[in-house]
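Quick one: structure for this chain?
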Amino acid sequence: MSTQPIPDNSPSMLPTMIIPQITKIEAITVNLPFVTPFSISSYTWTCKEALLIKISAGELSGWGECVADPDPFYSPETTVSCHHIIKEFILPVLKPGMDFPEFEKEMKHIRGNMMAKAAVENALLDLIAKIEGVPLYKMFGFEPKKIMSGISIGIKGSIDELLTAVQDAIDKKYHRVKMKIKKGKDIEWVEAVRNSYPTLQLMVDANGDYAIEDAKHLAKLDKYGLTMIEQPLSYSDIYFHSKLQKSIETPLCLDESIHSLEDAITAVELGSCRIVNIKEGRVGGMAEAVRIAEYCHKNGIPVWSGGMDETGIGRAFNIHLQTAPAFTIPGDTSETKLYFKEDIVTPPVTLDQDGYISIPEGSGIGVKVEEDMVKKFEMKREELV
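Got it. Here's what it folds into:
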């Protein structure tokens, strides 16, 4: 297909941003226990270990959250590797007075490590927005809107347990339900949910548990009217997804395969998916996420914002990102209390009576990072600058 790439310097607002005089940069690792364990096809997590980056300019501070896990089971990046990359390679190229595109250009010399880059970039954007006294979404030229909610239900021990979780999501007015699947817990499980909820906006996420040889098996999902099948094949694959998409009717969505605008263009050009999941924490930060969203919007590819079980800092960035016009499918943004009994920000993410999420008020990402809660869950803190 013929596509329309967008200019490298978009979004247009970014060239006017100047890196302020920075007085301190801290790396803080926290560990928040989940309310219940969360399972995907390859692993189960019982807590969220997150690397936070705090960049201060005088009395104001910007916060970023690295979405990497402590282990390499979902992504090659880990909290430890990201800490190393940030300290030794990213921060040395960060100079006060340079404009934001210049900083992005300098970071391109560092291959990969998009989660590490995102943590620093997002902290800078939060800080600059606070200095300017504007919400983050406004700095990108977007308009405020209520955000559609979605829920991701991990792999359960039984179909009855899954159906209970789905009913709970419906009762809370979530606009879309995503259920994790893997080999042996797929067709029968999807059928049970669809038979119980014929009109539910339902999608599945395999987190790369299948191979192209499973194409005929995955085609059995076509009859259940799914919004999409997310990342059925390997995290590193784009080519064989194009083969799979040609053999099934249900739209494929790429998630783990998308780390940059270039990846998105490749996927669209090859016909590897009809929908893209944009995780700002995985693609290098908000700026690249917006570029991907604008590219997909121009080329008729729906997008949505996935979650990485973030603390309230990461969730706030995801909410601001979804003010972009390209986001037309409910994302993975759920209530805070679904994951954590206690978070490190206020206010928590909540749903209104119709299942929508309001954008946090205030400058920057709009939430207040509660330092006492950060210290409560703190594992390690290091002053980098």
